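Supplementary Text 2. Reproducibility record for the structural model of the 176-residue chain.

All settings were left at their defaults, and a single model was retained for analysis rather than an ensemble. We include the record here because the model underlies the residue-level annotations in Supplementary Table 4.
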Amino acid sequence: MAESPSNTEILLARTAVALLLGLAVLEVVWHGLSSDDFSRLWWNVVARPGGPMTFRFVLQPVMALLAAFRDGVRDARLDRTPYLSAIVFGGGERRGARLWEGVVSTARILILGAVMDVAYQLAFLNSFYPAESALIAILLAFLPYALMRGPLARLARLSKMQRAPADRATFPGRNK
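Retained model, structure tokens:
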């Protein structure tokens, strides 16, 4: 089983979830829900990579990939089911537990992403659409993490398997 997160990591993860949910609720309260709002949201999301503060479109996914690498190596060492596969096809408690692992691992990145997007909107757009901040944080932090943790675990497994014959040759008494 994976090691338990610290109290600080749990607090950060809960804060990240509360922040993202709070931003989504705030969007509904301030701007309501309509098809125009959804088209504006996606238009603004697609337009952002070309504007100011573009570095966050590299910084946040790289940070997420580092977290995915760390957790993927741990998954390979523990011989766990690939992350995204466990979330999509896993059952009940296992799905929720694995999803929570990802939130705990990316909590700092999610919070950073939301805060950076709020600053971006206020400084450069002179408007504030809270749901866009939540969406950008998820797209730049959690999505790369979820997509890459499984493949990185597979690479770690392959690396472990390629080293295994040399280890056995060096230590013939070991069967693992």
